[in-house]
Amino acid sequence: MSIQRLHTEKRYSEIVIHNGTVYLAGQLADDYAGDIRQQTRETLANIDRLLAEAGSDKSKILGLTIFLRDMADYAAMNEEWDAWVAEGAAPARACVEARLYDPRVRVEMTLTAAL
């Protein structure tokens, strides 16, 4: 079975597709100056775009991990998530507080989805 890698850089690929499964690297907002709501919306929009490129969509997400800079943002992030997640297709999910690579980043998400 072949492995397809898209948007590959030296250290990572944005998308890896193997055996009917899509893996996305950690996704961030485009503008780190925004609040948690804006950063969450932008992160989810990037996920939508990459899943579409891979031939999948949010209704096929199997598992997702959310990294928050501060758990105080949990409720606001969840409001954006709840408005976005496909009805009846909530994935297995974890959310943890983490020190992210840039102090302006409030949220990062990584996921696995079916094709």
Automatic annotation (TrEMBL):
One matching Pfam family: Ribonuc_L-PSP
InterPro entries found in the cross-reference section: RutC-like_sf (IPR035959), YjgF/YER057c/UK114 (IPR006175), YoaB-like (IPR035709)
Coiled coil regions in record: none
The lineage's top-level taxon is: Bacteria
Which PANTHER family did the record assign?
PTHR47328, RUTC FAMILY PROTEIN YOAB (PTHR47328:SF1)
**Protein's name in the database:** RidA family protein
Organism name: Pseudomonas fluvialis
